[in-house]
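Human:
Take a look at this sequence-structure pair and walk me through the tokens.
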Amino acid sequence: MEERASIWGRSEDKIFETALVKYAQGTPNRWAKIADLLPLKTALQVETHYHILMSDVGDIEAGLIPLPDYTESADKKKNKIKEARKPATQWTAGEHKRFLEGLNKYGKGDWKSIARQCVKTRSATQVASHAQKYFIHLDKDVKNKKRSSIYDVSLE
């Protein structure tokens, strides 16, 4: 039990750090009060943990421990996100016609089946997005339109 209790978890570290602020240096029974907030820790373990923390902070401030370069890893993530997305392509009349056939066959909402069986060039997400735009278009007043749309194509 003593060995397990000497390992500090992230939640315990958070409680410890908050308690260090609450019970500042010079507070009577500081280590015991902090240990009361950490059921698996003794006052001695809390005090030892504090001294280890202060030693680590001193090493960092002395330049003995290099700080991680978080900006570089954040930039890499940002670039990965940009690379992962492909440019949007317009639906062809053939794809839209196959979408409508799939809609008649599988019904509204079964985008996965429509994508797999009918519009094999598009993912289920793309089919769902196309359907959303198609149904919005159907609700609009098409008489006052200035130009035609792929959504005007029907199976009839």
The radius of gyration is 31 Å. Residues 12 and 38 are 7 Å apart (CA to CA). DSSP finds eight helices and no strands in the chain. The chain has a mean pLDDT of 84.
